[in-house]
Amino acid sequence: MAGPIAPVASIISTLIAPAAAPAAASAATSGAASPFGSVFNQAVQQVESFQNHASASVNRFLSGEGEEIHSIALATQQADLSFQLFMQVRNKVVAAYQQIMQMQV
After folding, report:
1. Domain span at residue 75?
2. How many domains does one find in the chain?
3. What's the rounded Cα separation, in Å, for the pair 75 and 45?
């Protein structure tokens, strides 16, 4: 069972680790910068990168450039999982925001 979990863990660490490091560095250098905004922007760019890689892989296969079918399946699955993870995180953030807005002060 450890096999299927390893790719998911690598996608999560790929999405979170690069996005968190620049956010922490920018927050330390300037207090006015929005760390959430930079983390969100990095996550969107990472998901888009996975989707672009999967699309390019499919296009290479369709044009006959010798792309292996298993690498296409892995790239498309990675893009799908990263998008699903991003959407679930977004849903949790939106739900938390809505709860905060419903609080009475």
Report:
1. 2-102
2. 1
3. 16
